[in-house]
């Protein structure tokens, strides 16, 4: 045995045997004993990291409990799914993307023609605008590295007419079984101004692999920083339209969740559907340190128009917000980052955990309404 390999083995054998649960996260309580995770209360049972159900009801809920700064890119098979691949797609025909409407030159792109134009688009987080507490534990939230074709480039090639102000992006959405809860018909209308400003693109690769079937193979739309409901999968058609285009059924279905005022009839009356500053706790770790129970929370922050680290936390309504111990600002607003906070509750019982950013000028309506509140029941102090 080589000397270095022997030294490495000796080092491993010299490690103290973990008592209780093994330590999955690098922690501040190095002298402490990691006892495990405390579940959030009232959230129900969830199946994590595995797809279930079909079509419009199909979901995969990402397990956020184990997240670390090293795993902020979600592997493709754990990335959340909202709607699984439609069973009515005829895969015997080659996929085609048509671009028409108010254009001078109609175009039809094959997958091969699109692939030639693919470029890296960076790390981008998606969140379902219906991401919720029960029973999905806020797990309709994931980030990947995407590659694709800038939408504006394709559109310019078709020489839009001067009346064209908006673009309708239509995805395949036919299922043999009817959905109990979702309206079929996936299309969204964007102003050309927003396409340019937010950098919408047709994604073809996710984490350097072809898009998985359930994520829109062969081509889906992504508008960075916008809610998932605008990120149309299985895109078949792009249509340039004018100012009078009515909102699509998908836009109407998601009007409230994307913070529209009422349900505007015309697409032009929709405000941008970008995510404001947001944050949520993803786990509560329980430790024993010098004979005392201690807790450490970890969470994520995302969205907004600036990268920030001024996150505040409070436990229950009657106490003041205080800065979280450690908050890493996002590298870019398109993706997420993490925060941690050590906590020694003074009594047993239930605590509501709420978060907000200190700067009142940072738009954070979902945090203001306690949308991401989570509750924990503490049995040991
Ligand atoms: N064709 C089509 N595209 C769609 C949907 C759909 O039902 N059909 N759902 C949308 C919604 S509500 C979300 S949150 C995202 C989810 O993308 P993902 O499943 O790749 O995470 O896809 C969007 N694109
Ligand atoms: Mo969604």
Task: Explain this structure.
The chain is mainly β and 381 residues long. Helix content is 10%, strand content 32%. The strands form five sheets. Strands 1-14-15-19-18 form a five-stranded antiparallel beta sheet. A five-stranded mixed beta sheet has the order 5-4-13-8-9. The termini are far apart. 38% of the residues are buried. The N terminus is likely disordered. The site of molybdenum atom (MO) has 6 residues, from loops.
SSE inventory with pairings:
Layout: H1 3-14, E1 33-38, E2 59-60, E3 81-82, E4 96-101, E5 107-110, H2 111-115, E6 119-127, E7 141-150, H3 151-157, E8 166-171, E9 187-191, H4 192-198, E10 201-206, E11 209-210, E12 220-222, E13 235-241, H5 249-253, E14 278-289, E15 292-302, E16 311-315, E17 322-323, E18 326-327, E19 337-343, E20 349-357, H6 365-368, E21 374-378
Parallel strand pairs: 4-13
Antiparallel strand pairs: 1-14, 2-3, 4-5, 6-7, 7-10, 8-9, 8-13, 10-11, 10-12, 14-15, 15-19, 16-17, 16-20, 18-19, 20-21
The structure holds ligand MTE and molybdenum atom (MO).
Ligand MTE binds next to strand 3.
List keywords for this structure.
mainly beta, 21 strands, 6 helices, five-stranded antiparallel beta sheet, single chain, 381 residues, disordered N terminus, binds molybdenum atom, binds the ligand Nc1nc2c(c(=O)[nH]1)N[C@H]1C(S)=C(S)[C@@H](COP(=O)(O)O)O[C@H]1N2, 10% helix, elongated
Stretches with pLDDT under 50, minimum 5 residues: 1-20
Largest sheet features: 5 strands, antiparallel
Shape, per Cα inertia axes = elongated
Strand content: 25-35%
Strands side by side in the biggest sheet: 1-14-15-19-18
Ligand roster: ligand MTE, molybdenum atom
N-to-C span? 49 Å
Rg, alpha carbons: 23 Å
Helix content: 10-25%
Count, helices: 6
- Helix-and-strand structural type: mainly beta
Give the overall pLDDT as a whole number: 93
- State the total count of DSSP E strands: 21
Order of helices and strands: HEEEEEHEEHEEHEEEEHEEEEEEEHE
């Amino acid at each position: 045995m080589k000397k270095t390999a022997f030294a490495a083995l000796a080092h491993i054998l010299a490690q103290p045997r973990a008592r209780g649960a093994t330590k999955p996260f690098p922690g501040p309580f190095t002298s402490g004993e990691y006892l495990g995770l405390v579940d959030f209360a009232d959230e129900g049972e969830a199946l994590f990291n595995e797809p279930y159900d079909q079509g419009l009801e199909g979901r995969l809920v990402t397990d956020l409990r184990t997240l670390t700064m090293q795993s902020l890119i979600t592997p493709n098979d754990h990335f959340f799914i909202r709607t699984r691949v439609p069973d009515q797609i005829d895969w015997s025909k080659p996929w085609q993307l048509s671009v028409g409407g108010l254009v001078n030159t109609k175009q039809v792109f094959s997958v091969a023609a699109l692939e030639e134009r693919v470029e890296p688009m960076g790390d981008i987080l998606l969140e379902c605008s219906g991401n919720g507490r029960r029973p999905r534990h806020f797990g309709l939230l994931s980030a990947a590295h995407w590659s694709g074709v800038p939408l504006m480039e394709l559109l310019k090639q078709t020489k839009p007419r001067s009346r064209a102000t908006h673009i309708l992006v239509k995805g395949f959405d036919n299922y043999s079984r009817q959905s109990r809860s979702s309206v079929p018909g996936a299309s969204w209308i964007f102003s050309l101004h927003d396409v340019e400003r937010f950098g919408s693109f047709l994604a073809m690769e996710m984490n350097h692999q072809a898009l998985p079937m359930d994520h829109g193979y062969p081509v889906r739309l992504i508008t960075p920083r916008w809610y998932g409901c605008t990120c149309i999968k299985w895109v078949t058609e792009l249509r340039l339209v004018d100012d009078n285009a009515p909102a699509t059924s998908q836009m109407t279905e998601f009007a409230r969740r994307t913070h529209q005022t009422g349900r505007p009839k015309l697409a032009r009356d929709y405000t941008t559907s970008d995510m404001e500053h947001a944050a949520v706790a993803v786990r509560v770790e329980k430790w024993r340190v010098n004979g005392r129970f201690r807790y450490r929370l970890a969470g994520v922050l995302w969205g907004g128009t600036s990268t920030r680290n001024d996150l505040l936390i409070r436990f229950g309504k009657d106490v003041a917000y205080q800065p979280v111990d450690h908050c890493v600002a996002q590298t870019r607003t398109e993706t997420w980052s993490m925060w941690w906070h050590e906590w020694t509750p003074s009594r047993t019982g239930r605590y509501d955990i709420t978060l907000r950013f200190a700067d009142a000028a940072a738009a954070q309506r979902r945090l203001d309404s306690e949308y991401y509140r989570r509750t924990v029941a503490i049995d040991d102090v």
